[in-house]
Each structure stands twice: as C-alpha cells, then as structure tokens.
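Exercise 7b. Backbone tokens:
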C-alpha cells in the first residue's frame, strides 16, 4: 500500500473553454472497483488521505480536486463554479478511469455532486455515502460559509496559515495537532510576497461569485432539483450527520430517509459540519457501508 497517492490530470470542458482537473489516486490502478471521494466547497482531494489508505486495500480510490481548487485549474468564467459543471467534470473523470461503475463518498459539496449524478438515468454510481449535507441547506450555514469563502487572505508563515484554518474548522471536531496539520497542509500554497515567501489559500477566490449570487428563487429551484435527484437514486445511500451540524438538520435527515428509496443514516457525536473521516471509528462507518453485506 502506497504512503502517498499518484497524481493524474484529465481535460474537461466548460462553456468558457477547456480546463484540467487533478486527481489523487490510491491503490491498484488496474482494480475495476473504484471509490470516488469528493471534497467540500473549499477543500481538496487530499482531505481523504487517511480514508484512502484504508480503503485502497479493496478499492482503487480516486480523490479529485474539483475545478478551482488544489492542483486543478481555475475556470475562465467563475459563473461556471456550479454543481452541473462539477458533475460534468466528474463524468469525464470516470470515463478516464475506464470503469462501468463507481462507489461515491461525498462530503458537503461532494455529497451534493453525488446526489446530482446518482439521480441521473444510467448513473455509474452504485453506492452513495453523503457526508453531512442534504437537498435543503440552512440559511445559518450558508451565511457562515459565505463569511469566509473568497477572502483573499495571506499568511507570513505556514504555521500562521494553519492556525487560521483551524479557527474556521472547529466544527470538524477534535483532532490532534498532527491530524490538523495533515488535514490543512494541502489547503495552503506558497507564493512570493513583498517580503519573501508567503502562504495563501489553494482555491480561486472567485468561487464566491455564484455562491453570493444565490437568490431565494434560485435556492428554492436548486433544492427542488436536488430532492428530485435524491428520490431517484436507485442504490443504497448512507447519510452521515455531525451531531452539531448547522448544515444538515435532523429534520432534513428524517425527510431524506422518508423520501429516499434505500437510505440509512448515522450520527457522529461531538462533531458539527463536517465529519472528516480521519478518525478510525469514522473510517469504519464508510468501510462497513461500502464493503459490508
């Protein structure tokens, strides 16, 4: 089992032109059993290193950097930073992998992408784990995320950047200093500043453009489309909720169980949005769902 992933790229298409998507791959590249792990709004595919190390014993684990994040290229038109574009990119990536089906682990935005793709006719998704998100997003969570997405922050040192990221990640729950470093190390990238090397966040600040352009009418239409997709997902679905989550409420979770075809759920104590699946007991939830009976 490799201690670090292989890095690959695939070319995708948006209305504004071509862009490259990066993906981090673990396990046997010839293994036809593929697990896609897709991150949240301002994260990267390296969020899943611990999960991938465990799951790569049975899977070829593929963890993309969604467009505008990590090692992937930024989009020429920021209005394309929306779910339909992200889903289209993942269809292209799955075609590159040359497999008929995949299992899907999606955290937050990655979970919404999974719902959107799994609800399509002839979808390649076999099993879907949705980590702390649902078709209905709360105003509180949208306001919280909007308060920091797109901020052009700079840090004089790597450690200063890590400290900042910890302050906006407290809802992830308890992690050791080493785990915080592993989780947030890929979120920072070095750049040349006026006084030498500085550190910035890895993503395109223009991600905030479509996020902040959401109107009540657009939000309502988006929620209706996501519920339609969720109700159409034919395979098994596991919904994970952080006990203190402000994004996935218990009421929405109950509605997902009621409206979905084959939905089970688990709540993780002492965690908000979103469980990181770094801890062994959280990894076991994913492993049991994807590989259990």
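Sequence design result:
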């Amino acid at each position: 089992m490799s201690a670090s992933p292989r890095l690959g790229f695939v070319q995708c298409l948006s209305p504004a032109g071509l862009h490259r998507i990066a993906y981090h791959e673990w396990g046997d590249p010839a293994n036809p059993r593929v697990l896609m792990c897709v991150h949240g709004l301002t994260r990267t595919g390296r969020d899943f290193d611990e999960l991938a190390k465990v799951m790569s014993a049975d899977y070829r684990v593929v963890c993309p950097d969604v467009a505008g994040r990590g090692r992937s290229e930024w989009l020429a038109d920021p209005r394309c930073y929306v779910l339909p574009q992200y889903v289209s990119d993942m269809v292209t990536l799955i075609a590159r992998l040359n497999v008929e089906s995949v299992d899907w682990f999606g955290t937050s935005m990655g979970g919404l992408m999974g719902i959107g793709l799994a609800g399509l006719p002839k979808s390649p998704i076999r099993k879907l784990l949705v980590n702390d998100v649902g078709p209905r997003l709360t105003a509180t969570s949208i306001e919280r995320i909007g308060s920091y997405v797109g901020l052009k922050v700079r840090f004089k040192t790597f450690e200063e950047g890590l400290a900042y990221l910890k302050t906006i990640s407290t809802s992830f729950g308890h992690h050791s200093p080493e785990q915080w470093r592993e989780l947030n190390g890929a979120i920072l990238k070095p750049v040349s500043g006026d006084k030498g090397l500085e550190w910035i966040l890895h993503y395109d600040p223009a991600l905030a453009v479509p996020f902040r352009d959401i109107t009540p009418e657009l939000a309502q239409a988006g929620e209706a489309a996501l519920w339609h997709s969720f109700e159409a997902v034919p395979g098994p679905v596991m919904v994970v909720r952080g006990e203190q989550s402000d994004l996935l409420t218990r009421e929405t979770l109950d509605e997902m169980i009621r409206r979905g075809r084959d939905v089970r759920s688990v709540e993780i104590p002492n965690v908000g949005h979103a469980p990181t699946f770094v801890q062994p007991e959280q990894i076991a939830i994913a492993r049991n769902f994807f590989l259990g009976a």
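Instructor comment: The first strand starts at residue 6 and ends at 14. The chain has two domains: 6-146+215-291, 151-202.
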